[in-house]
Specification:
alpha/beta; eight-stranded mixed beta sheet; globular; Metallo-beta-lactamase, Chain A; 2 domains; 292 residues; seven-stranded mixed beta sheet
Length: 292
């Protein structure tokens, strides 16, 4: 009888050990699957070489967006890129503000390409291209004008937060920096990665963002205002804490040395569009940035 009980215990013990081994192996296999499985899609951001201006084209699966449209003289560069990539429509267009180096080709794109929705800041500007753009947007039911409340656009696994100035009344409308400080920001989330577009914000808006305490942590940032040095930029970058930064500018208007020093102090890997496009690829976990 005792021998039979010991035999049963031995069988039970072996069974438990085998089940534990199976559980461990299965768990390890699942972990490896989730860690090493190939992503089903990539987010590709191309910051175009358009001099001291901004134009970024974003692609994810069959979803395409554009943030700013550079200057009128850059139309050939933009049109050639869109043609090469086979892009004939946009799911969204975000125009950060009304300076000519950001909306110079907005009307061209709206006239020549299908655009499903257009984001613009809700203020009146005296800048050159403003009136023509407003005439083009008149009557469209796909225009989202943002004043203080942000908008969240969800496109499959992408989440795009479009963020206007929190307190626009605090900016002096007669100040030359007014348009810049009214820039729409965009925080794009894909998987575990965040990409932060900052328009041309200057010291007043940067201070406003810092003092708001809002979470602006991101892995990647398009630096404000073409690489100009702004007061409190160091504190701003510490709040963002990016791994990568991109500056859209030209050889004739290189980034401020003081800004580059701050970027280096924060161990950020910086790229600029001087002489070539900057291409960022994210798969929801990892990000790579290269210059063409």
């Amino acid at each position: 009888m005792r021998g039979s009980e010991e035999s049963s215990r031995s069988v039970l013990k072996r069974t438990v050990i085998i089940l534990c081994i199976i559980a461990l192996v299965s768990g390890a296999a699942l972990i490896c699957f989730f860690l090493f499985q190939k992503p089903d899609a990539e987010l590709v951001i191309t910051d175009l070489d358009v001099g001291k201006a901004d134009c970024a084209v974003l692609r994810y699966k069959d979803i395409t967006g554009i943030i700013d449209t550079a200057e009128e003289d850059d139309w050939g560069t933009i049109e050639a890129f869109l043609g090469k990539e086979g892009i004939d429509s946009f799911d969204y267009m975000i125009l950060t503000h009304y300076d000519k180096d950001h909306i110079g080709n907005a009307v061209n794109i709206l006239e020549k390409y299908q655009v499903d929705r257009v984001y613009v800041p809700d203020y009146v500007s005296g800048k050159k291209h403003y009136k023509k753009l407003m005439e083009e947007l008149e009557g469209r039911d796909d225009v989202i004008r943002l004043s203080q409340d942000e908008d969240i656009l969800k496109l499959e696994e992408l989440e795009i937060r479009v963020i206007p100035a929190e307190d626009p009344d605090s900016f002096d409308t007669e100040d030359n920096n007014y348009d810049n400080n009214m820039s729409l920001l965009s925080m794009i989330t894909y998987g575990d990665s965040k990409f932060f577009f900052t328009g041309d914000i200057e010291k007043e808006r940067i201070s406003q963002i810092i003092e708001s305490g809002e979470d602006i942590n991101a892995d990647w940032i398009k630096m404000p205002h073409h690489g100009s040095y702004e007061k409190r930029i160091n504190k701003f970058l510490k709040a963002v804490s990016p791994i990568y930064s991109v500056i859209s500018t030209s050889a004739d208007n290189p980034p401020d040395d003081k800004l580059i020093a701050v970027i280096d102090q924060n161990s950020i890997k910086n790229f600029d569009t001087i002489g070539g496009n900057v291409v960022t690829v994210g798969n929801g976990r990892d990000i790579t940035v290269t210059k063409e």
